[in-house]
Amino acid sequence: MDFNSIISSAGDNLWSWLVLPILAVLGIYFTVRSGVVQFRLIPEMFRTLTNKTPRDDQGKPQSISAFQAFSISAASRVGVGNIAGVGTAIAIGGPGAIFWMWLMAFVGGASSFVESSLGQLFKVRDSNGFRGGPAYYMQHGLKARWMGIVFAVILIACFPFAFSSLQANTISATLSSSFGGEIEWLPVVVGVVVAALTALVVFGGIRRIAHVTQAMVPLMALLYLLAGLLVVGMNIEQLPTVFASIFTQAFGMNEVIGATLGTIIMTGVKRGMFSNEAGLGSAPNAGASAAVTHPVKQGLVQTLGVYFDTFLICTITAFIILVSTPDLAGANRGITLTQTALVGNLGEWSNILLSVVIFLLAFSSILGNYYYGQANIEFISGSKNLLRGYRGLVVIATFLGSIASADLIWNTADGIMGLMALVNLIAIGLLSGVAFKLLRDYTQQRKEGRDPVFTRDRLPGVTGIHCWENEQSVTGPLLIVPKSK
Which residue segments constitute the domains of the chain, with CATH numbers given? Predict the structure, then answer.
C-alpha cells in the first residue's frame, strides 16, 4: 500500500467511525434543545441577513455587514465540491445519496447555529473591526488557549494552504480540459494569474475580501442556477422520476451501481459535510467578523449559508446530472459527470460557461479560506511580519496548486479537516448551553416586539466576553438628526 492509500484509508476511518457519528449525534441534540431553530426561525434568517450595520463614532460601519460575512462564508463553502463532490456522491452512492446530503444539511443547520452564535459572543476587536471563531471561544469560553492554538494550526494547514491549492488546481484542470489538454504551459500561466489576483485581494485586508466576495457569490450562484434550470427545463419530463429515485434509493440497494445502504448513507453525509461545513468550525471565523446587534443574528445567517450551499447549489448539480443521466452504470466520478451532462444538453459552449463558474467558485473559495487563516494567525500572534509572511505563502500555495498533482493533497486535507472538526465539536458541545441562553434572550426580545440587542450583562455568570459592553457600543452612537424647518 503506497503512502497516498495509507493517508486516504486513515482519513476515511477517522470520518466514518468518529467525526460523522459525533457530528450527527450533536446535530440531533442541538436540534431538540433549540426547538428546531434551523426550521422555526427561517423567516428570521432572511430578516437578519439585510440588517443595517451598526456604526462607530465617526459614522463608519463598525466592521463588515451581516451580508458580507455571509458572502465570505458562502465563498468558502461554495466551491468545486458543489460540482465535483456531488458528482462523486451520485457516482458512488446513486441518487439516494442526495437525500442523506439534504438530511445532514438540515441537522447540521443546528450545529452551524450554535458555533456561529458562540463565535459572535466571544469575538474581539481589532483595527479592522472584529475577529473571532472557534479558537477564540475555546480560549475565552473554555479557558483553554492551548486548545485554541491546536485548532488554529490545524485550520491554517487545511483551509488556506491545502484546500486553496486544490481550488487553484481545479481552475487549471478545467481550463486545460476545455482546450483539450494540448497546451502544456497553460497550468503555469493559470497559476501566475490566480496567484496575482489572490495577492491583489488578500493584501487589501478583510474589507476588500468582503467587497469582492459580496459581488462574486451572487454572480456565480445566478450563473450556475440559470444553467441548471435550463437543463432541468429541457428534461422536465424526467423530474418526477428523479425525485422518486432520490427518496426510494435512499433506503435500499441501488441495483444499477451496486451501492449498499451503508455506502449510500455515508457517501451522502460525508459529501454534504465537506460541502456545507456545518459544525466543522470554519464558518464561525467569518460570522464573528460581522457587526450585528445580537450574536444569534449571525447564528441564523450562517445557518442560512448551509441551506444556500446544499439546498440550492448542490441540488442544482444533482438535478443537472440526474435528469440527463438516468443510467449511472459506469458513470465517471467528479466534475466530469456534471460536465458531460451540461455539454450533452447545452452544447460545447457550456464548457466555457462551466469554466467561468468553476473560476468564480474556486477563486471565491480561495479568498474565504484565506480569511479563515488570517483570523487564526492573528489569534496565535499579533505580529505584522507573521501576517505578511502568511499572505505571501498563500499566494505561493495557489501558484503551486495550479501545477501540482491533487490526489495526495485531497486525501491529506480531508484527514486534517476531520481532526479540526473533532476539536470544534468537543468545544461547541461543552459551550452549547451558552448558545441556548442566547437563543432564549433573542426570542424573548422578539416576542416583546424589539429588534434584539445583546449586552454581556444579560448573561450573568458567563465570563470571557470581550465585546458587548453596553447598548451604545453595540448599536453605535445615537445620531440626532435636526428637524427640518
Answer: 7-445 (1.20.1740.10)
